[in-house]
What we know:
Two copies of one chain form a homodimer.
Chain A: E1 7-12, H1 15-25, E2 30-34, E3 38-44, E4 47-53, H2 54-61, E5 74-79, H3 83-95, E6 99-105, E7 111-116, E8 122-127, H4 131-135
Parallel strand pairs in A: 1-4, 5-8
Antiparallel strand pairs in A: 1-5, 2-3, 3-4, 6-7, 7-8
Amino acid sequence: MDQRISFVSIATADLAASRRFYVEGLGWEPALDVPGEVVMLGAGERLVLSLWDRAAFEAEVGESTVSGPGVLPFSLAHNVETPALVDEVLGLAASAGAQVRLAADRAWGGYTGYFADPDGVRWEVAWNPGPIGLQVVPGTDTTPRV
Amino acid sequence: MDQRISFVSIATADLAASRRFYVEGLGWEPALDVPGEVVMLGAGERLVLSLWDRAAFEAEVGESTVSGPGVLPFSLAHNVETPALVDEVLGLAASAGAQVRLAADRAWGGYTGYFADPDGVRWEVAWNPGPIGLQVVPGTDTTPRV
């Protein structure tokens, strides 16, 4: 497993307010801007800050992994080059004692799963063949999945 | 303000358990390893994942900014090249409506303050003249402060 954070994602209570703060207030420029759903902002070399509408985030991640006691409304992501690497990293996390949610194909075309670190910080492990997903990994297999 | 996350910091409940998970479990290599206090791990180009002992983190950040209802045990950091830029970014955040904790000189030689985004996600704005602090900014003024 490479040492790499690809996304920092925040499940916002009010996406419009968060967007206003980062984009109009701090002057950050969105790389992706889908009203009511998500705003993504470059935050470094191969690093993206993702502001999600909380409901849209929960629809993707699953409610129980986003809210509730001890669950933080944010996650880190580790993006990898191939779907097989998603399973490999999740297996590594499981063998290190992490709670793992096995990867699944996502409606948007990716393949992602989750693990939680000892403090309950959730990590998404993702193969994301979309344009922003491709930007965050060093080298990506762009071959369509069979 | 540049679009840049420099540190992702987690205030761990049990630093030894977190260290074991990331270092022995996932195989990540520490860039700094101070038992009972902090473990820092490279997480990308100019990006560091910081695992803090919660008490050490609170001693630095201030208890009220780390725990309590609605306060998350983690923070993001935006590192800048000079102390003056710390004040400038905090001023920008204040004018964007953020709650700001003004910057102060720190015992370890840096100059740091905080703001909170609309969801209460805390951002440290830091001038850090130490070796790891220098690594995360594009160009650093290494002139000693007067």
